[in-house]
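S1.2 Input.
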Amino acid sequence: MADAGEDIKVTLAGNASSVKTDSQGHWGVHLPAMSAGGPFTLTIQGKKNIRLKDVMIGEVWVASGQSNMNFELSGSVGGAAVMNADYPQIRLFTVPQKISLQPQQNTLPAAWQVCSPETAKHFSAVGYYFARDFYKNLGVPIAIVESAWPGTTIEEWIDPEALRQDAQLKPLVDQRDASNSEGRSWVGARRRFELEFDDFELIRDPAAPVEAFPFSNFDDGSTLNATGGYWTYDWQSAPATVFELVAPGRGGKGFSARISGSLDESANSGFTAKFKLDGSPLDLSSYSGLRFWARGEGQFRVRTLQPTITDVDDYAASLLHVTASWQPITIWFRDLRQEGWGVSLPFTQNSLTGFSIESLTTVGYPPHPVSGLFDGMIAPLLSYPFRGVICYQGESNALKAHQYRTLLSALITSWRKASHQNRFPFLIVQLPNHGAVPDQPTESAWAELRQAQLLTARQLPDTGIAVTIDVGDPRDVHPHRKAEVGHRLALWAQGTTYAKPIVYSGPLYQAMEIQESQIRIRFSDVGTGLDANGGTPLRGFAIAGADRTFHWADATVDGDSVVVSSSQVPAPVAVRYAWADSPPCNLFNKEGLPASPFRTDDWPGITDNTK
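S1.3 Output.
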């Protein structure tokens, strides 16, 4: 922003451009294309002179999606790579989480960061690995703009105008526009809350004769606790909040812990008790629960901290309300539950590092409106000439996989249209294996979602797919093997966008041919040949006749084809491969890239509303 009618001159790497601001003080300039490199100094001259140093010229990619794109580098397999994440020519930018019902113009507050061990550890693991492989192979500066939010559906990321223009999707945005729900009224607003806590103690079973163990009451004016640890407060995700010890505490003496302020739709605060100074665990197997007192206005949730749980699907209590008067709260360990979206693990009461209290307003967890993340987190980026997008999303839409075909296409085309870059590359992470491993061929919503992603990649130009069917975890919706995901995305970008002569894709289904009692499946992207990873036989192929009943099949590689048959299906009509939540499958090319799951039939699936 500048004064209305002010003359502005911008200079970068020997190139200059001038402009006069509009009546609102807005301005923008276009500089000619320049060779990659840096660092340079960007000079802005007007009534004030501004010099921005350490500016790089290179490639910029947007990394979007839900929790698996948001998954931090420090939690990934090989997370020790954080210590080697020292790449001055890689730049990182995280778009603040924001919901809006109107297109936002900027991403304040946020700033570019140089890739270092400290900045990379909390950045998207997929985004980092993509950038690292890209930089090592192409040798030019690269920047990753992370715009992701865990647990979100694809319709939250689509331009509302694109939804209105599609008869199948228009009801989604119409319902949002007609809604007067609490969740919609929350958007763009802040809600006040004030919560006070005191007199924490660990308790045994009511029948036990031993008294409770006083854990923390803050009466000495500190946040130390009786097990040798301390309390901390994290306001980075909730900057408009305050933690303080206030007097008097409950009973008119000492102190209590107060958390107050305001929260928007993206914020939550964490008040955490560590049992030991060094963060080591404590054995609480002789206790039955936690009791404390609370008062105020708002809601909160108690979560235990268990070292074996790395995907933040902690054992937690239900959401609790408070009143203006002090009231006792009892959390029985036997009642704690995981949400069910992470890896299911037994509760290790004998090995806990602490617990945390998540403070919320009286609204609790507000729902996200359709298109709210497009307007809040994508629209501000669309005037920026980024090179392409990598996207890891779909888990939240798996039960509506058939509709996802239309939704994913709408997202890609709407982003391209709004950015005035009608052909920027859009690379999709196909969902990995997660869920049940079948004994027999079965239907699968996750398989249908993968097919929707594959079909979209085939139908839209400049769209690619990174197959990850081999790097997931049947028990964990947040698999930790992110390096392979970033590597395969980078391969696709190098082989297509940057036209490097490399094999960048695993085998993709191309055509089928019925040959008496067997079916021949032809593939593209076979590289130097098809391969049964880990050795023969090929696994994951199923075959069916006109009765549409699938049976596991014998499958053999024959050149660039796979021949599929079964003695139980003398007259086959269809083949499926890797068609399950967590399928047994091992078809790769010899370059080590897996084949995409596919089916040759178009029979209605379990998410197809037309059946």
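S1.4 Remarks. Residues 508-599 form one domain.
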